[in-house]
Design goal:
Number of helices of chain A: 1
Distance between the termini of chain A: 65 Å
Oligomer: heterodimer
Helix content of chain B: over 70%
Helix content of chain A: over 70%
Number of helices of chain B: 7
Largest sheet of chain B: none
Number of domains of chain A: 1
Radius of gyration of chain B: 21 Å
Low-confidence stretches of chain B: none
Structural class of chain A: mainly alpha
Shape of chain A: rod-shaped
Strand content of chain A: under 5%
Number of domains of chain B: 1
Mean pLDDT of chain B: 89
Largest sheet of chain A: none
C-alpha cells in the first residue's frame, strides 16, 4: 500500500478524536447521574 | 412535535433509541471500513492515498451538517425560546468542532502526498478553517456568559450569522480557482465518481451521520442533566440558606 503512513495517520487521528469524544460524553453522563442521585438522596434525608 | 421537545420525554426517548443507534452505527462503520480497505479500488492517479477520502469527505459533510443542525436549534431558541433547542445547540458545538478538526487534519494528510504541501490558503481550506474558528468562538461564548438565557440568545445570533459561511464552503470550489477539487458527489448532473468508490463513500458517510446523531443525543441528554443538577443544587442551597441564595438563573434551566 503506497502512502501507508499518511493513510494510517489519517484514520488513527480521526478515530482517536471520535473515541475521545465518545468516552468523554459517557464519563460526563456517569458523573452527572451519580451527582443527581446523591443530591436527591441528600434532599430525602 | 412539541411532545418530543419536552425534556423529560426526550430523556426517555434517548434511553430507548440509543442502543439501536449505537448498534447500527457500529455495523455500518465496520462495513464501511471493510469496503474502504478491501472493496474500493486504488485510484489510477492517487494510488491508495485516495482511501483517506473515505474519512475526510464524511467528516467534511458532517462539519456542515452539524452547523445546520445548530442553526435550526438557534431558530428554536430565538423564535420559541425552547430550552431544549439551546441544550441541543450547545451540545452540538464541540461535536462540530471535532468533525471539522478531523476534516482539516485528514485533508492535510491527503494534501501532503498529492499536492506536495500540508496547507494552502485556498478558498475551500480557508472557509473550512473559518468554520472551525466559528465553532471554537461559540464554545467560548457559552463559557463566557454566565446568565444562561443571555448566552443562549447570543450563541443563537452568532450561529445564524455564521450560516453565511456554509454556502461559501460548498461553492468555494466553483466561485474561485482553487487547488481543492470541485464537487464530485452532490453536483448538478449527478456524481462523477465511479460507483466502486461512491458506494463505500456513501456507507462511510451514513455511518458517520449515525455516529454524529448518537453522540449528539448523548451530549444533549448530558446538557439537560447538567442544567437539572444546577437547578437542584441552587434550590438546595436556597433552602439551606433560608431563602437567601441567588436564584436569578435557576428558572432558566430545563
Amino acid at each position: 500500500m503506497d502512502h501507508a503512513g499518511y493513510i494510517i495517520a489519517a484514520f488513527a487521528i480521526a478515530f482517536a478524536v471520535v473515541a475521545g469524544m465518545g468516552i468523554g460524553i459517557v464519563r460526563d453522563h456517569r458523573a452527572l447521574t451519580r451527582a443527581l442521585s446523591r443530591l436527591s438522596e441528600t434532599r430525602r434525608n | 412535535m412539541w411532545k418530543y421537545a419536552n425534556p423529560t420525554f426526550f430523556l426517555t426517548l434517548v434511553d430507548r433509541v440509543l442502543p439501536w443507534l449505537a448498534a447500527a452505527t457500529a455495523a455500518l462503520m465496520a462495513a464501511g471500513l471493510y469496503m474502504t480497505f478491501f472493496v474500493a479500488p486504488a485510484d489510477y492517479q492517487q494510488g491508495d492515498a485516495v482511501r483517506i477520502m473515505y474519512i475526510h469527505v464524511p467528516s467534511a459533510w458532517l462539519s456542515m451538517f452539524c452547523y445546520m443542525t445548530m442553526a435550526a436549534s438557534a431558530l428554536g431558541t430565538l423564535v420559541w425560546r425552547h430550552p431544549l433547542a439551546d441544550a441541543a445547540q450547545k451540545a452540538a458545538a464541540p461535536l462540530g468542532a471535532a468533525f471539522t478538526f478531523v476534516c482539516l487534519v485528514t485533508g492535510s494528510l491527503w494534501g501532503k502526498p498529492m499536492w506536495g504541501t500540508w496547507w494552502v490558503w485556498d478558498a475551500r481550506l480557508t472557509s473550512v478553517l473559518v468554520l472551525f474558528l466559528i465553532y471554537l468562538g461559540l464554545i467560548a461564548l457559552w463559557q463566557t456568559i454566565e446568565e444562561p438565557g443571555k448566552a443562549a440568545r447570543a450563541a443563537a445570533i452568532l450561529t445564524l450569522v455564521g450560516v453565511v459561511n456554509i454556502p461559501i464552503i460548498k461553492f468555494s470550489v466553483d466561485w474561485w480557482n482553487t487547488l481543492h477539487q470541485p464537487a464530485s458527489v452532490f453536483r448538478a448532473g449527478g456524481p462523477t465518481i465511479a460507483p466502486s468508490m461512491l458506494w463505500p463513500l456513501l456507507v462511510m458517510a451514513l455511518a458517520f451521520t449515525l455516529l454524529f446523531i448518537s453522540l449528539h443525543l448523548m451530549a444533549t441528554r448530558n446538557e439537560i442533566l447538567r442544567r437539572r443538577l444546577h437547578r437542584l443544587t441552587m434550590l438546595a442551597a436556597n433552602a439551606a440558606d433560608g431563602g437567601q441564595a441567588d436564584l436569578r438563573f435557576a428558572d432558566m434551566e430545563v
